[in-house]
């Protein structure tokens, strides 16, 4: 049974020009010990999806309008009262933000910040909390951890700060960690180190991780399964190697064709024409159809298509392209 | 003769002294952002400058275009020293964030016309609008774009406008500082194609500054790798990626996430770019380098490589003298 099961999640943001459905009917499962990647371009709803799980909207007028967020042994997070959800945050599900500097308190020493997380959820003396913080810093391979305990966030490099944030996320041994673009602000050699660290912690503790990123390369590095999002919906999902090596939705195919690492120097990159649609008034039918090179008249009719498996697809590999469905009917 | 020639270029930034430092008359501290860079940019090439944050790549570009003075060495354009920004607009720059580099209160057409008027005064006033339209077409924007304000454009369109504005000066060199880093992958491809086309069709010389090795591998003819203010390797693009000679270049290439493969089992390099104030006499990468030996603590001159490039590592495959 899966650890987290999201069903038909709808999250709405209020804006002066109307209600935007940033997440519009998203379903996915995360298994125990799995690293699940959610990818897409800016505004596709990947961040909104993962923030909906813990209702971390940072003051934006957003709400989970409908759907289920079932966490194993805990219940439906979507129906939980704020006070109950506050207990789930950190203890069962931890969140790692993109910018480690804004996630840390600039006026508090590192050791005390980590200790505070521990003391908030269980009884521990200051000395015990400090000892636990030291061990956590060792676990995330912070060099000279004794010295860092008394440092302030601004005294640390970007990579070290992100290690501290990961240490805090691990402090209460959560079952699930949600990491929203955790390496986007980091240099590539440091990104590599942080990705290895996340994977190593998963391997040793069995923690599930949801990794949200715009970078297909990052997903390819450490994720087991993935979902590709476009305009608030999941358009393709499956095991990482199945999706990246044999993408079946035209959007995933187009994203991969636009990457410069994929083609020889002599061939042209193929950009995706146009721009993503408005989420306040999305187009009928498939939301990618207006930009899709393969679009047919029937693509732009009716409700947005759901996920289905196409013939000969690998197990668990689904996409939301009706043209694949048509070929299924013909076969 | 190189079109743009950096010769022993230096740049130091004074670090602010606190009141306490002044009281005890502490000596001013400098951050050495660019250390004696020699770099010859050839006519008609796309030269990539890569490195991680703080390596000095942007500072070098700003010195090249005269936006910042150098503290030593000189920059020659077409054989003549550049002093301050080029008044004829032969060097133009494109910045990372196209929104903050466009005037929000002027239409695109007016902004572009201004540049044409400034740098090509010989062009009759009546011809300017037609020239702006020609340039909009060149960067694949529809004619109506001239009537719009920057806020009405998408990120990719704005970056096209920025490139178009640079072209209005009819430059010989375009310096692009992380021009695609703020863009989504699908839009990034449009801008990369545009830059490649301008180089191929107009022979425009482009200095392309980036931290993205995949983009550089695809776009550039030659690549300079910078680390802590120094160029540590300079090679033809294909040989740089096929046979990197400096261990830092190797580490950068290894760290690039590949969509075709899961993470390699190879040990990554440890640590981060060290404190730029702690000046080491020898190789600045040695503290993180898996191959470091005692000999690395001696000053490292550039070594000529058998591929025709240069690398600042005594272990590189050198030309046998």
Automatic annotation (TrEMBL), chain A:
- UniProt keyword list: ATP-binding, Cell membrane, Membrane, Nucleotide-binding, Transport
Which protein are we looking at? Peptide/nickel transport system ATP-binding protein/oligopeptide transport system ATP-binding protein
**Species name for this entry?**
Mycoplana azooxidifex
Q: Name one GO biological process term.
A: transmembrane transport
Instruction: Say which domain of life the source belongs to.
Output: Bacteria
GO MF term list: ATP binding; ATP hydrolysis activity
- Gene Ontology cellular component annotations, sorted alphabetically: plasma membrane
Domain (ABC transporter): residue spans on this chain: 4-256
Under Pfam families, the record lists: ABC_tran, oligo_HPY
The main location is membrane
Say yes or no: keyword Nucleotide-binding present. Answer: yes
Family, as annotated: Belongs to the ABC transporter superfamily.
From TrEMBL, chain B:
Q: Which InterPro entries match?
A: AAA+_ATPase, ABC_transp_ATP-bind, ABC_transporter-like_ATP-bd, ABC_transporter-like_CS, Oligopep_ABC_C, P-loop_NTPase
Annotated GO molecular function terms are:
ATP binding; ATP hydrolysis activity
SUPFAM superfamilies given for it? P-loop containing nucleoside triphosphate hydrolases
Q: Where is the signal peptide?
A: none
Q: What topology in the membrane does the UniProt record assign?
A: Peripheral membrane protein
Q: Which UniProt keywords apply?
A: ATP-binding, Nucleotide-binding, Transport
Respond yes or no to whether keyword Transcription regulation is given for this record.
no
What coarse category fits the chief subcellular location reported for this protein?
membrane
Q: Name one GO cellular component term.
A: plasma membrane
Q: SMART domains per the record?
A: AAA (SM00382)
- Please provide the Gene Ontology terms (biological process) for this protein: peptide transport; transmembrane transport
Its subcellular locations are: Cell inner membrane
Domain called ABC transporter: residue spans: 4-253
The entry assigns this protein to a family as follows:
Belongs to the ABC transporter superfamily.
Q: Which PANTHER family match?
A: D,D-DIPEPTIDE TRANSPORT ATP-BINDING PROTEIN DDPF-RELATED (PTHR43776:SF7), TRANSPORT ATP-BINDING PROTEIN (PTHR43776)
Put simply, this protein is called Peptide/nickel transport system ATP-binding protein
């Amino acid at each position: 049974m899966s650890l987290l099961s999201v069903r038909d999640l709808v999250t709405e943001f209020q804006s002066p020009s109307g209600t935007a459905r940033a997440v519009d009917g998203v379903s996915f499962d995360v298994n125990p010990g799995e690293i699940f990647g959610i990818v897409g371009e800016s505004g596709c709803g990947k961040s909104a999806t993962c923030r909906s799980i813990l209702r971390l909207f940072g003051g934006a007028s957003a709400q989970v309008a409908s759907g289920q967020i079932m966490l194993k042994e805990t219940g439906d997070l979507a129906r939980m009262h704020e006070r109950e959800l506050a207990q789930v945050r950190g203890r069962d599900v931890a969140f790692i933000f993109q910018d480690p500097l804004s996630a840390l308190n600039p006026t508090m020493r590192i050791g005390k910040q980590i200790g505070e997380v521990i003391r908030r959820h269980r009884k521990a003396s200051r000395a015990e909390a400090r000892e636990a913080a030291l061990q956590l810093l060792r676990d995330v391979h912070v060099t000279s951890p004794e010295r860092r305990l008394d440092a302030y966030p601004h005294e640390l490099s970007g990579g070290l700060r992100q290690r501290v944030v990961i240490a805090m996320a691990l402090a209460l041994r959560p079952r699930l960690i949600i990491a929203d673009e955790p390496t986007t602000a980091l240099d590539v050699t440091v990104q590599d180190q942080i990705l290895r660290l996340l994977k190593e912690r998963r391997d040793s503790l069995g923690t599930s991780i949801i990794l949200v990123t715009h970078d297909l390369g990052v997903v390819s590095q450490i994720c087991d399964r993935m979902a590709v999002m476009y305009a608030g919906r999941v358009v393709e999902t499956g095991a990482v190697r199945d999706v990246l090596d044999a993408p079946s939705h035209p959007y995933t195919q187009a994203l991969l064709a636009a990457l410069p690492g994929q083609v020889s120097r002599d061939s042209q990159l193929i950009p995706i024409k146009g721009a993503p649609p408005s989420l306040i008034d999305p187009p009928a039918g498939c939301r990618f159809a207006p930009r899709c090179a393969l679009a047919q008249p029937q693509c732009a009719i009716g409700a947005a298509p759901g996920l289905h498996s196409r013939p000969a697809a690998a197990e668990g590999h689904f996409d939301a392209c009706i043209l694949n469905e048509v070929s299924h009917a013909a076969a | 003769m190189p079109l743009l020639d950096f010769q022993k270029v230096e740049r130091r930034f004074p670090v602010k002294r606190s009141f306490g430092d002044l009281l005890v008359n502490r000596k001013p501290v400098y951050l050495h952002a660019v250390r004696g860079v020699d770099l010859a940019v050839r006519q008609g090439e796309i030269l990539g400058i890569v490195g991680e944050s703080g390596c000095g790549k942007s500072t070098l570009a700003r010195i090249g275009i005269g936006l910042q003075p150098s503290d030593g060495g000189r920059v020659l354009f077409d054989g003549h020293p550049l002093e301050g920004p080029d008044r004829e607009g032969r060097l133009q720059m494109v910045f990372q964030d196209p929104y903050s580099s466009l005037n929000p209160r002027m239409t695109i057409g007016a902004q572009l016309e201004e540049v044409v008027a400034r740098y090509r005064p010989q062009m009759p006033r009546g011809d300017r609008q037609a020239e702006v339209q020609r340039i909009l077409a060149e960067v694949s924007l529809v004619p109506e774009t001239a009537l719009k304000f920057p806020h009405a454009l998408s990120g990719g369109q704005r970056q096209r406008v920025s490139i178009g504005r640079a072209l209005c000066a009819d430059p010989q060199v375009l310096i692009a500082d992380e021009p695609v880093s703020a863009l989504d992958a699908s839009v990034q491809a449009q801008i990369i194609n545009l830059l490649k086309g301008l180089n191929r069709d107009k022979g425009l010389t482009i200095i392309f500054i980036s931290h993205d090795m995949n983009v550089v591998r695809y776009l550039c003819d030659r690549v300079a790798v910078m680390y802590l203010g120094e160029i540590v390797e300079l090679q033809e693009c294909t040989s740089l990626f096929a046979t990197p000679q400096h261990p830092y270049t190797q580490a950068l290439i290894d760290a690039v996430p590949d969509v075709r493969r899961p993470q390699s089992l190879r040990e990554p390099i440890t640590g981060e770019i060290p404190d730029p104030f702690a000046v080491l006499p020898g190789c600045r990468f040695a503290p993180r380098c898996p191959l470091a030996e005692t000999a690395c603590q001696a000053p490292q001159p550039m070594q000529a490589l058998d591929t025709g490039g240069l690398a600042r590592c005594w272990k590189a495959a050198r030309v046998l003298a």
